[in-house]
Amino acid sequence: MSLRVGVVGLYRGAGPAAVFAHHRECELYAVADHNLDKAQAMARDLGAAHAVEGFEQLLELDLDVIYIATPLPLHAEQSIACLDAGKHCFCEVPAVYSIDEARALVAAVRRNTAKYGFAENMAYFPWVQTYRQLVEAGELGEVIYAECEYVHPYEQGMVRQADSVGGKKGELTWRASMPPICYCTHDLGPILQMLGDRCVTAVGMHTGNRRRPDIGCIDMEVGLFKTANDVTIKVLCSFSVAKEPPHHWACIYGTQGHIESSRYGSVVTASPHHLYREHYGKLGGPMRFDVDANHPGAPPEAFAGGHGSSEYYMVDEFVRSIIDDTDPPIDVYEALDMTLPGLCAHISAQAGSEPVEVPDPREW
Predict the structure, then answer these.
(1) Choosing a second label site near 355 at 20 to 30 A (CA), which of 7, 22, 118, 266?
(2) Residue 164's pLDDT is what?
(3) What CATH fold (topology level) applies to the domain 123-298+337-363?
């Protein structure tokens, strides 16, 4: 069985498009982008039969799967249209931009037979999977607290650089107005997967706009969450800050130990980590170990898309769920468990940090 795949949004979607093009059970059939020249060039390079300018044109083609890598404000609308057209939907993060959109997305999944999958590539990074194995094996005891950060200075992405991608050069993009904590899925999502948990309460705070008043973006935003299993999680997100290099960072505390990554390692190279257990004090402190960015034994085609081999395994698991007719690896409910806490934390921040209940999409 060969799945016909279309990819829309070729800035972020370029990597996954290459993965689909090299996947043994997929055919990259079409690519779409506001910049038609870019789409045509990618179609030539990857052997896609069609290059079109918009999502609507892509939707009209004979496709099995559409990978959505367009700007965040379009995710919910395009995911719903994809499902209603009978095409499997694999959507970039975050899943939605509002709670109302989340309700509409759940309704679309329930009324259709096409599958919805959430393309959270961080869940497939080797170090994240190593942490998950350690937590699930009880190496830290009972987890009581976790903290993570996604700090990625990207002010150039908040101002349009060219006039050929749906707007005029110099205009502010959607990234300028996006509350940073709404993009918390990269780090909160893997933590929740490790714990088999979901957030029930959110408190948010942000620093306002002091670094780039010309752009108007929120500099830094923090979400503090309580989970159903009474774990406390703190998440910091920032896309406008004087810090290099960008980093993902995580620290997890249990009753018998903790594990922590480095703020100065790269997500695409081997990175240092430290594990501490109670008896390690007698051995001179935490145990350092390195985790490679790539999965051992990954096939050559696993490196077609970037981010090490993570996106190959992300795509492969979703493809397998379609072929085998099983549940997507990250379905709509887990996608919203990763997305809704950030939306609620920003609502809290705007309301003087009043606690906000995080809805459970399974109950809608």
Answers:
(1) 118
(2) 46
(3) Dihydrodipicolinate Reductase; domain 2 (3.30.360)
Sign of CA dihedral 78, 83, 86, 90: positive
Q: What is the mean pLDDT of each run of 10 residues along the chain (364 residues)?
A: 93 95 96 95 97 96 98 97 98 98 98 98 93 95 97 92 62 95 98 97 97 96 98 98 90 95 70 82 78 84 82 96 98 98 98 98 98
What distance in Å separates the CA atoms of residue 24 and residue 316, rounded to the nearest whole number?
Answer: 10
Domain pair 3-120+312-329 / 123-298+337-363, same fold: no
Domain boundaries along the sequence of the chain: 3-120+312-329, 123-298+337-363
Distance CA 329, CA 317 (A): 7
For position 278, what pLDDT does the model report?
Answer: 76
Sequence-separated (6 or more) residues with CB below 8 Å from residue 2: 25, 26, 27
| Assigned architecture for domain 3-120+312-329 | 3-Layer(aba) Sandwich (3.40)
| Edge-to-edge strand ranges of the sheet holding 65-68 | 50-52, 26-32, 3-8, 65-68, 88-91, 116-118
Q: Which residues contact 345 (CB under 8 A, 6 or more apart)?
A: 181, 184, 202, 203, 204, 221, 222, 223, 224, 225, 235, 356
What's the distance, Cα to Cα, between the start and end of the chain in Å?
A: 35
Backbone φ/ψ region at 283: left (φ over 0), alpha (ψ -120 to 50), beta: alpha
